[in-house]
Amino acid sequence: MAAVESLPPGTPSAMRNAFGTVLSALILVLIGVLAFSIRLFSVIKYESVIHEFDPYFNYRVTQFLSKNGIYEFWNWFDDRTWYPLGRVIGGTVYPGLTLTAGTIWWVLNAINIPLSVETVCVFTAPVFSAFASWATYLLTKEVKGSGAGLAAAALLAMVPSYISRSVAGSYDNEAVAIFALIFTFYLYIKTLNTGSLFYATLNAIAYFYMVCSWGGYTFIINLIPMHVLLCIVTGRYSPRLYIAYAPLVVLGTLLAALVPVVGFNAVLTSEHFASFLVFIIIHVVALVYYIKGILTPKMFKVAVTLVVSIGLVVCLIVVAVLVALVASSPTGGWSGRSLSLLDPTYASKYIPIIASVSEHQPPTWPSYFMDINVLAFLVPAGIIACFSPLSDASSFVVLYIVMSVYFSGVMVRLMLVLAPAACIMSGIALSQAFDVFTGSIKYQLSSKSKDDAEDNTSTKNAPKDDASSGKADKGEEVAKERLSKKGKKKEREPAEKPSVKSKIVKKKALVLPLEASIVALLLLIMLGAFYVIHCVWAAAEAYSAPSIVLTSQSHDGLHVFDDFRESYAWLSHNTDVDDKVASWWDYGYQTTAMANRTVIVDNNTWNNTHIATVGTAMSSPEKAAWEIFNSLDVKYVLVVFGGVIGYPSDDINKFLWMVRIGGGEFPHIKEADYLRDGQYRIDSEATPTMLNCLMYKLCYYRFVETDGKGYDRVRRTEIGKKHFKLTHFEEVFTSHHWMVRIYKLKPQKNRIRGRVKKLKQKTSSGVSSKSVKKNPWM
Amino acid sequence: MAIDKKLLSLLLLVSSLSSIASASFSDPDSDSDLTNELASLRSNSESGVIHLDDHGISKFLISSPTPRPYSILVFFDATQLHSKTELRLQELRREFGLVSATFLANNNGSDLNKLFFCEIEFSRSQSSFQRFGVNALPHIRLVTASTAKLSDESGQMDQSDFARLAESMAEFVEQRTKLTVGPIQRPPFLSKAQISVIVAMIVIATPFVIKRILRGETLLHDHRLWLSGAIFIYFFSVAGTMHNIIRKMPMFLQDRNDPNKLVFFYQGSGMQLGAEGFAVGFLYTVVGLLLAFVTNVLVRVRNLNVQRLVMLVALVVSSWAVKQVVYLDNWKTGYGIHPYWPSSWQ
Q: Measured between beta carbons, which residues in chain B are less than 8 angstroms from residue A374?
């Protein structure tokens, strides 16, 4: 503090501060523009469409919301999906994203900007990624000052992991949830730094928004209690910690229970128990500190034994109750996804439907390089910077990175949660490195020039202040915020002491050699440039494809494969409104949203048996499959086939999962029957079960007519069974590149007419009825 | 007491002699006798795995006529190969015993005597190994009731069938023999006595621990411990170790073309080897550590030349590490980025 106060309070420093604020604001605006515009590659390269699978459902819900209003939406029972069960959309969906986009659409329309719902949906994610980078700035500023904040915000604006989930058109929960996650953390840290109830309340509301948006909110409600516990255990308990935590648990849990999809889960499932346990512990600890404050040390010693024993008893009782509750449920009260985080091998053993999703696989090291790129190199430096000195706020971000990096190691999907933490850490590291390197360059340049002009002893102090001014500014800001808030003197003192100490340390000239600093600076800038190039490349090439329209670049130009929309359009124009379409669950959302037809299963995989039924039908021979589909009132069966153009994520490649999931519920389907010596093949070596199952037949029906040989370009082999006829299904539509094929179930022949025929035959030729075929379709 | 023991052993001797006598005097072709003998052998062996030698093989499998009333699952063991850990013989043998014990526990009545678990040891029954045509371990073979020729390899358990240890072995058995093994019952990690001792120790220790926490003197208050823990978890995760654990990846592979050469790096992005992950995890971590060292520690060093030297080393190592990771990633995934220059520049 001494160094700062000794500066003359005249205009130059005030000007500098004002200039710094304006510059920061300008940089933040630019970062927002960057975050928005780097996500527009998909619109520029393709068109303004909704991407992939889940976004189509969200889009459909948003359409419904904007058309019918919030109350209708809340009570919406959707009979277009999960036929014949249907789905209560209002009660099973995280409404945050749709409500957000619906509100944006409504506001825009109210001020006479007539955007379509689709346009609003497409651009929601880029807008929110700009918000997310501003939230990152705020969070990092609370931890290590505004320099680190700006660096972290710039890094987050273009981190590939986040881009992959928030390009224009990727209208999914994560798009708004990452913003909500970072903002909730920011408000928690802000409350922790200020001890203000105002921020604590805001924190609970931000948490509510997060609960509305994404199932990942359990990460918050476990991470914050862990941090509180950590603070208590390491002796960092303070009233600020209490204010930051207790209102969050009480208000947050009450608010979370308001979201229909969460409801009483907020108090009943194990994911939330950690927060309640810590809630009890923090009260015990608060009591101990309170008693310590009003008693003499001797009395306190007596009291400690009393309180500790009572606290222990209370804790034991609570733990016993929890254990009893948990033991009474089969999975221990944990959802499958959470369990597979704790025991990574859980999903692969017991829940094929979770294990089958590619984003639930554990990542290898190249994934880290792809998703956070050079940040992976900088994070350790950020962690160390957070430890010198360790504050409540910096211990939180350390905990955040440690937890998220571990979880990302289990499930590649959680790389998304790691990305903000990695950006914050790298921002801190970069800012510290720049501080040191530019500081030493500046110090040595100025001291050289002054050496020439004046006596060096008298000038030694000034450049030092200059060199450390960047740090001093930040220290000043943090300290100011703490001082400006109303608080007890006791709280203020520990906040001031370390800063005084650190100033004394800084009095020594902390510099590095000039030339080495310049080289290091250049290398750091090169590293940053590489990051930018990688991110732009990733945004443009790797993550911009909408996967509903495919393109391929070959020597004779660009090919566009628009088969999906072609076929959904065919369905909506050529089939009856109430016809039921069966397909593997991946295409359920798209079929309901784009073709407006009823589906049997969709991407909301809530009913395993129903999915297993479809899987069983696909793995059964034609007749058995016909019977299953007929019992579900299915009129059309849709399969996706990539063998003609070499599209690898088609149904034949997903087929083994259908067998596994089907076999999980219906044991007569056995995976081994579809494998030849443990290998999955569709060529002449394939097993008869494989060659006769419905999926094989629907995909490869008439396939040999395309090239005369039946060469599958995905499996890179000739198919095993080339010429066959369908008995129970008829082909009604095959898209331009054969990617989507739609079949109609043949109607059951009229039995009475058959009997009449039989009678006729009997009378004419006298053939006995036994020789007549029983099969009504032949 | 000594007399008692002697008496007991005498009784045992007599009873076993009589059982041998009854076995040898009765009709050797009788199926039920063979089954009974196997059952009695089983009841005498640990976890129900019968130790067979050449004699036993010829008796129970070769000389008996084919449809036998029982199937036999044979585990081929070799003590001299136990030292080779990559074969996992001992682990597989334990799991084999588990399957056997589970089968015994979950079946009673007629099904119990339809399947016997046996093991053959190489050094004592080499000719049996030849008869089965086994020349590579680990090897588990099911000899079904109808198998006539022992060299018939259709009953061999695939690598994939013991990949998930006892569970997948049980699946194999259930699938081939149509018998039920049931869920594998693993012995608990800690016995009840151990658990109670641990709980008691925790209860006794808690007041002391709480006292120390209140004083602020525990290891937990040491920042360096937390720091190194955090860095370690970071290293552990970015190295993809969870992938190696979940997928049970080996540290390295043997080159198929040249058995003396070891493969440390696997080409293709979906998979990685253990050593490869640690190497890259180290590269990821070392750059940040060096940067932190330079900005936090080196700035306090007074000697300019030491600073220069250390920075030189740090810069060279860092840029080498970054380059190496980019190169490896390029090689492994075929990753190739390119910047987007304005078209007029080209």
A: 322
